Amino acid sequence: MTVACRCRHVLKVLLTGVLLLAPGATVCVAADFTATIQALQERYQDEVEAHASYGKFSNKALAEDYPNSAYLFKSLAASEAIHARNFKRILDSLGVEVPREQLQLRPVESTKSNIMHATGVEADEIDHQYPAILERIKPENHQEAIDNLTWAWEAEKQHRDLLGRMQDAAKKWFRFLIAHIEGEFVDYHVCQICGSTLVERPAAHCPVCGRPASHYQLIPYVAAERAEPEEEF
């Protein structure tokens, strides 16, 4: 880097610092990321709704005596909560409020129907919503938002894989296949940085965000009682 380039870089950093300290600076910064803010607000609302829905699906599975299915839904709910908190943190840093709209939750039906619904939602997010969102915000180049939305996208792919066998069970021979799933013992581990959800904790690093595996938390197995109350965001 030439001396002139260094000077321009230092001047840019100093000017940015002055703007951030100036009155009304938050509005100026936020104005540079209108598409990013809209995307984060939309995804925040969706993740909070997913967290609440999965919690209710977990309770329903427990009521129907499917504890392993309830455990999976509880783990997915924990992952969605991390995504919501990540999006809220970025919105807070931009001085933008998170949505406070009434949650649009799907009515809780049978575990079979809830599995089919959850798998369909995950597929739509993976195949359509996240790719479109990332393409839309790319020109604004808010790297933290891009990273966190990408992590959420990759975690949703894991969710679809975990729900896959349950979906197969839900399509036909539900009683026999779900009985096999319920007879298995499995743990769920969720990365507290990005929401990655795995049945085994990685040996070294998270495959989604690349952070140390120590950030993974074992989700406690559900007991024969209602899941924990929904989290506050």
Structure notes:
- The structure is a single chain.
- This protein has 233 residues and is mostly helical.
- It has a single domain (32-218), classed as Up-down Bundle (Ferritin).
- Helices cover 64% and strands 3% of the residues.
- The chain has seven helices and three strands; from the N terminus they run αααααααβββ.
- It has helices at 3-21, 25-31, 34-63, 67-93, 111-137, 143-171, 174-182, and strands at 189-191, 197-198, 216-218.
- The protein has a three-stranded antiparallel beta sheet.
- Strand 1 (189-191) and strand 2 form a beta hairpin.
- Helix 4 (67-93) runs antiparallel to helix 6 (143-171).
- The protein is globular and about 55 Å long.
Summarize the structure.
This protein has 233 residues and is mainly alpha-helical.
The shape is globular
**Rg, Å, rounded:** 21 Å
Average pLDDT metric: 83
Question: Alpha-carbon distance between the termini?
Answer: 45 Å
Label the CATH architecture. Answer: Up-down Bundle
Strand content: under 5%
Give a count of the beta strands, DSSP E runs of length 2 or more: 3
**Helix/sheet category:** mainly alpha
| CATH class category | Mainly Alpha
What is the helix fraction of residues, given as a range? 55-70%
Q: Provide the CATH superfamily.
A: Ferritin, core subunit, four-helix bundle
Oligomeric state, counting identical vs distinct chains: single chain
